[in-house]
Amino acid sequence: VGRTGALTPVARLRPVRVGGVTVSNASLHNQDELERKDIRIGDRIVIQRAGDVIPQVVRVRIDRRREALAEGLRLVRAKLPERCPVCDAKTVRLEAESVTRCPNLDCPAQLKNNLRHLASRGALDIDGLGEKLVDQLVEAGLVRRLSDLFALRVEDVASLPRMGEKSAANLIAALERSRSTTLTRFLIALGIRHVGETVAELLAVHFESMERLLAATTEEIGDLDGIGATIAGSVGSFLADPHNREEIARFAELG
Fold it and tell me: Is the pTM of this model over 0.85?
């Protein structure tokens, strides 16, 4: 379950060497891809590393299915779950999209990925907030939404396993430093779909403040050069959501 709630099926493979690298996983992208290639659990497949980097399933060895059946494998057709495997929310798939998503913004998987994104170098650049610490903060219930990060105290972080006072103090100091940021970086940190550095910069230069951007309509956002209807719709719906507006206000309250 990714940062935007997208559920991505992954093939678990019997480890095999491909181009000098041992491959044991390959992304299957979405349900359409599973069906188009007729990929079933237990199949023999041909894989390659796309661009010599990313492992991908090229095709199924249909001619080897009898062997798999003889080995006692059932060759089950894989289907994406109807409920999120992390938070159990009912999954959705919009008509215009090929992606199945978890719609729950408070899903721990989305929260963890969004926290990592917020802490990344292109966003708020929070030194020391790595993957393991993000997992600990969410699983301990110390961070239930993004803005909770800036309400953390040294003693909260120090209470986590394998976290001493000094490490905790370093993290709080890094969070303190990250409060002084730009509108561009803050927009990137919010994790709005389709908003990367270029779009965030366009929005920041034009609207100049979060208050003016929050007051803008989707049409006004879409009138900017370089921002099409899809991006404008994504930004407009994100900023219109009461939960997101509350989060943005809380970020401001927390400095």
Answer: no
In angstroms, the CA 188 to CA 199 distance is 9
Q: Whole-angstrom Cα distance, residue 197 to residue 33? A: 30
Tally of CB atoms within 10 A around 172:
19
pLDDT tens per residue across all 255 residues of the chain = 998 899 999 999 999 999 889 999 998 999 999 999 999 988 999 999 988 788 999 999 999 988 888 888 888 898 899 999 999 999 998 777 889 999 887 899 999 999 999 999 999 999 999 999 999 999 999 999 999 999 999 999 999 998 999 999 999 999 999 999 999 999 999 999 899 999 999 999 999 999 999 999 999 999 999 999 999 999 999 999 888 999 999 999 999
